[in-house]
Fold:
Amino acid sequence: MHFGVFDHIDSNGMAVGEQYEQRLALAERYDALGFYCYHLTEHHATELGRGSSPSVFLSAVAQRTRRMRIGTLIYILPLHHPVRLLEEIGMLDQLSGGRFQLGVGRGGQPAEHSRFGLAEEDLGPMFEEALEIVMQGLDEGRVAHEGRYWSLPETPLLIRPVQQPHPPLWYGTGSTHRNAWAAQHDVNLLCLTPNERSAAIFADYRDHLARLGKTGAKEPFIGLARQMVVADTDAEAERIAERGWAKFVQSFNWLVNRLGRPAAPIAPTYADAVKRGMAFAGSPASARDFVAEAHAAGANYMALELAFGDLSEAEVARSAELFAAEVMPAFAPADAEG
Structure:
């Protein structure tokens, strides 16, 4: 298995600039420890995410790291003009020396889209149209499009990615509905669902890949996103996780609470998140068991959300160090490259 890091940059009580510096310092540490990729999500007008422009923050991460890939999970396509986004993709891949990973999606928080004046029923069609334009631009080095949401004259893309024909694609999912498309385009999948549900998605995806002869060494990453705290003892990890989770839950529903809308479903306590199979807190030995269960469910990748809520830089760094030293080696792939 390979292991990456997933980040919301959710509000943690620090001033914004201080929190950015904290995350950049942690990115340097992840890079030194051998994590595969730093994945940043996108949120707007909410304490759930202070990385509202992933391109801006990842350009800083690119300059503070050397080996670790950097990527979006996800760019919310309905919120980006496709031409500008294509130019930013090219810039990020050039600035990182070909380390950029391109994650796309429609977004899962309609309350945030509404801050841009978008209707919820438009989000799916906008995503599909934007994806068509983005893929055309990546494949052809130009765009020309007449559609419902965008009408674009023929436009050359002069800032091309280092990685050709395009950076690796990622898609966050909780169902099988795009597995055929993903298999066709060698897309790396990431599930934010319990192991049992994810196993069915993974099995279906591998069926699609097998029909195209893309199994074995050609197989994309098929992974899980999980909150994780690792400490010297189970009790210490659980204590840290519960404290941090309380702040994360507050941020998760910050915008809908402010708007008076129904709260999004989220485990009320970290212990409940663990019961649902969506999180882990414990010692390195327990963490190895947790990862082994994910591997048995069909995952060959895990994106770990190590920093969330009000966890301190020292607590997050300790989790990362223990995981890298005592968990990752037990699952090292034959072609591990750091």
Remarks:
- The longest helix spans residues 120-140.
